[in-house]
Design a protein that fits this description.
Layout: E1 4-9, H1 13-26, E2 31-35, H2 39-47, E3 53-57, E4 69-74, E5 83-85, H3 90-100, E6 123-127, H4 131-146, E7 151-156, H5 177-181, H6 189-196, E8 198-200, E9 203-205, H7 212-216, H8 220-234, E10 238-243, H9 250-254, E11 259-263, H10 267-283, H11 287-290, E12 293-297, H12 306-309, H13 321-332, E13 339-341
Parallel strand pairs: 1-2, 1-3, 3-4, 4-5, 6-10, 6-11, 7-9, 7-10, 11-12, 12-13
Antiparallel strand pairs: 8-9
Helix pairs in contact: 4-13, 6-8
Length: 346
């Protein structure tokens, strides 16, 4: 198996830099990524190496020859044509690169992802057929994770209830998350994100979308790039995304998540809803999501009563040992697809 020098020649240089950092961190001994920012640089490197040279590019005008193999980042995936779908998680792009380059995926201790280990999971999507449950769990999850590093809370809901640290009507505002999504290609994205970010108990939050139609207009590829820039440039250790409703792209927007937490009501209704959700995933050819879903049955006393919730200071939630233990068990226990009953945390 020959080592491969991978030249990243991308029109979006900032994206190329982030992808380079990701590939370098993988520390695959057979893959040696480099970034070239001009065509002449790519041609020069092609002339200095006789074998094992691969160019990864989003420029369709670049073609392979006897000195180099070309892999295209594209809006379609076609292994036979050497095309990789660009708008997906960096880990999937990495795996496709290894396949195209005929390299093996390293499975040593430093590279093996331990499924279900909290330390590996950075993005959590919380979904419930009951939107209020998703809000309550997402808020407590954000406070729990904020004890272990910087955590960002995002309300991807048409009916958000937080516009700051208080439970209140989230009136439409400009300059919030919706505006930031439309700044994806601007160099000052990270600076602007820091300006509009709000303190949210021990965590942080971006103001919610000003209007539910902004959610419907959010394309999956924009959302994935949005999360990528928040992680790579803003330094968040974890991001909690509250998924509030079923709409056209809701499965696509779940895809960047490392863990999907499906809050399941007790009894036959919850089981049927879980089964319907799994059927939807299979119908939409999103079976990969099922590997990252954890079904959670939370006890009724897990969340404060309605009147109490509005008066709770968010930073005080971490002082509730029982509820924090429930969150911990929800993240640590069970296999994908199994229901986790948190009532035995007692």
């Amino acid at each position: 198996m020959e080592d491969v020098t991978l030249l990243l020649y991308l029109k979006d240089v900032e994206y190329g830099k982030r992808l380079l950092r990701f590939l370098v961190k993988k520390k695959n001994p057979g893959l040696h990524p480099e970034l070239v920012t001009a065509e002449k640089g790519m041609k020069f490197r092609s002339g200095t190496r006789t074998g094992g040279l691969v160019v990864l590019t989003d420029d369709p005008a670049v073609h392979g020859d006897e000195k180099r193999k070309v892999i295209n980042l594209s809006n379609v995936s076609d292994r036979e044509q050497g095309k990789i779908f660009q708008y997906q998680r960096a880990e999937k792009i990495y795996q496709e690169i290894l396949w195209q380059c005929r390299l093996e995926l390293e499975k040593g201790p430093a590279e093996t992802r331990k499924e279900g280990a909290e330390g590996w999971e950075k993005i959590f999507a919380v979904f419930s057929p009951n939107a209020a449950d998703a809000t309550e769990f997402s808020v407590m999850l954000s406070q729990y994770l904020a004890q272990r590093g910087r955590c960002l809370y995002l309300q991807l809901s048409g009916l958000p209830v937080y516009s700051g640290a208080e439970l209140e009507t989230a009136s439409p505002i400009s300059g919030g998350m919706g505006d930031l999504i439309f700044m994806l290609e601007q160099e000052d994205f990270a600076e602007r994100a820091r300006e509009i970010c709000l303190t949210f108990g021990r965590a942080e939050m971006l103001p919610p979308l000003a209007h539910f139609k902004d959610l419907l207009d959010c394309r999956p590829e924009d959302w994935e790039r949005f999360l990528e820039r928040l992680q790579g440039e803003c330094g968040y250790d974890s991001i909690v995304v509250e998924m509030g409703q079923v709409f056209e792209y809701f499965l696509d927007l779940m895809e960047p998540a490392d863990r999907i937490l499906f809050l399941q009501v007790p009894g036959v209704i919850g089981r049927v809803q879980g089964a319907v959700f799994r059927k939807i995933c299979r119908t939409e050819r999103k079976e990969e999501l099922l590997k990252r879903i954890r079904y959670i049955r939370q006890p009724e006393e897990f969340v404060p009563a309605g009147p109490e919730w509005g008066s709770v200071r968010l930073e005080e939630l971490t002082g509730d040992d029982r509820r924090m233990e429930c969150i911990k068990r929800a993240l640590e226990r069970g296999e994908e697809g199994d229901g986790i009953d948190m009532e035995d945390t007692g």
